[in-house]
Inverse folding.
């Protein structure tokens, strides 16, 4: 089954999970870049308030075609308890998401807040069949914690031959 792993990462944590997931289950990686180009301070001063308001960023790629995939995994950092503006925009940029099986993941310094629920709802509103969500802390990643729960969700979808 073809898997597409879409993620936004500013500090590398979400990219780490996406790359580890790809190594475990295969699939194509799509890195979403926020064209605002935040500095570390800018993520907190400008990015976090935008995340709280549910704003959309200008992103690259502007269109993400997943019509050729069976499963979509979408990952975001947690900013102020919410998905990033880049991920909000990425969900809007999806082409062919209707009816696709999906899983969601996020990375945070501590608590995911309402991030997983928000991304799940946005994907569901676009017609995706979201089958699970997993949160990782930065500490989990630094300690080399396995991403088994996320990889197992994708493997389960592959076994079910969800298309």
């Amino acid at each position: 089954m073809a898997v597409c792993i879409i993620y936004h990462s500013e500090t590398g944590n979400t990219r780490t999970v996406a790359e580890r997931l790809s190594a475990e289950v295969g699939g194509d990686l799509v890195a979403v870049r926020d064209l605002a180009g935040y500095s570390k301070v800018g993520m907190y001063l400008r990015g976090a308030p935008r995340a709280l308001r549910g704003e959309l960023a200008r992103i690259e790629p502007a269109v993400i075609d997943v019509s050729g995939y069976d499963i979509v995994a979408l990952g975001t950092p947690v900013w102020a308890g919410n998905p990033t503006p880049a991920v909000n925009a990425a969900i809007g940029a999806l082409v062919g998401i209707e009816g696709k099986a999906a899983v969601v993941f996020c990375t945070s310094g501590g608590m995911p807040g309402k991030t997983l629920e928000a991304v799940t709802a946005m994907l569901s509103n676009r017609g995706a069949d979201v089958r699970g969500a997993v949160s990782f802390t930065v500490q989990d990643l630094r300690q080399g914690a396995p991403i088994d729960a996320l990889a197992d969700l994708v493997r389960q979808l592959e076994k079910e031959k969800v298309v």
